[in-house]
Sequence to fold (274 residues):
Amino acid sequence: MHDDESGESVAERAAVAEDAARAGGAVAGEHFRRDIDVERKSGKTDVVTEADRASQRRVIERVRETYPADAVVGEEEDELKAVPDSGAAWVIDPIDGTNNYVRDIRAFATAVAAVVDGEPVAAATVAPALDDVYVADGDAVRRNGEPVSVSDRTDPETAAVAPTVWWDFDHRDEYAAACTEIVERFGDMRRFGSAQVTLALVAAGALDATITNVECNPWDSVGGVHMVRVAGGTVTDLNGEPWRHDSTGLVASNGGVHEEALSAARAADAVGDR
Fold:
């Protein structure tokens, strides 16, 4: 076992992830529903605010108090944009769900994951406007201090499933196909506009699965994937192989409806190959 994967070290990393995510979430919460400038990055729906940057800076400050030498992967500014395959790193999304945030919708979160040799070992997702804090170490996931786990549903017609991440305008046929597949295969569909909130909901059993066929940014996915797995769920790529930070597609489920969710994601992906 890698030294950084010992139970004591994982517990410490989980505590730091929670502390940092709470601090970053507090910054985001202070600015929520206030008059704040919105900038666009690469497209009409790719927005950023000064709250994103300030929250990320606060998270990094907290992490570096305990782990000053660890690598940092962050959505904003000049931090790394890919997860290193060796060593310890922290993956940060200061406000996951910025489009919700700027529309005064409460479904956004600060997400912090601790990674060792490319694999997540601990994670925290703090949704300040929802007053929810999810924390995963190596053994359990807790929401507001209480243990949670994935649902036990196995009948797809009773399941609630969400499409997640984002399909750009030149991939809207795949987005539409993902929605159609979910509606036709499962009991109902949800969409929350924050991948980390969505993954936390799968880990807590509120959702039964979430799917996408695109390659996810690590800050949108790594922490939540860890939560789903620790909570007893299954997370794969489109090939049904265990998901990694560089995988294409992400299918996260309670395990009981995973094959159906995987089929839905593959069908959506097939539309893009036509």
